[in-house]
Amino acid sequence: MSEKKEKKRRRKDEYTGPGEQEVEKPSKEEYKIAKWMKKNVKTKKTKFLSHNVEYFSSGKTLDALMNSKFAEGDEPFFKSRENAIEFLDVMLEHKFFHRARKVPVYPEGKLKANEKEIVKEDKPDKTKSDSDNVNTQSASEDVPKSKDKRKRKIRLDMHSEQVFVDGSEAYVWIYDPIPIHYWIFGLILLLGAILICLFPLWPPFLRKGVYYLSVLAAGFLVFILALVVIRFIVFIIVYLASLSKLHFWIFPNLTEDVGFLASFWPLYEAKYENEAQTEKKMKRKKKDKESDNEDDIPDIIPLEPETIENIKEHDDSMILRKRESDNKKSSESSHSESESEASRSSTGKDFEIVDPNDV
Question: What pLDDT is stored for residue 223 in this prediction?
Answer without folding.
Answer: 94
